[in-house]
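Marked as duplicate of an earlier ticket. Keeping the data here for the record.
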Amino acid sequence: MLYLIDSGNAQEIEEALMLGARGVTANTSMYRKNDIRLHDFVNGYSNRELDFLSGEVIGTYEEMLQQTEELLIKINFSKDGLHLADTLHKRGVKTAMTLIFTMGQAVAAINAHVDYLFFFIGRNEEYGSDAMRILSNIQEMIAAKRYPVKTVAA
């Protein structure tokens, strides 16, 4: 299991890394809250010996594609996001798909060749879903089909 910190706050990130987290990720609202640009966030941690580093892009297909030119990409689940993930896979760029809530979304993301699935346990449980069961089913499918994707429980 790989422990990640999902934050844009430098102090929180440093504390988590000291406690054994091996990766860093954040989304656009976290960048704004901590007054940091996506590029600066990723550059700030790219020289660290992390097992995982991602920054989320947002916008239309064209806007997200432009943002990907220099980053490991974390993409929101959407029609454009799936299209972008498939395009980036063909270019050899690793991607993480976030906002995964269902088995169907996981399958769509896998078919778009993402490298990581960010499955939202907390939000699923807020809506009364059995998130751990869904996550377990996703993991069983990945193992049975030997898909080259990793799951991050968020």
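See parent ticket for discussion. The longest helix spans residues 131-145.
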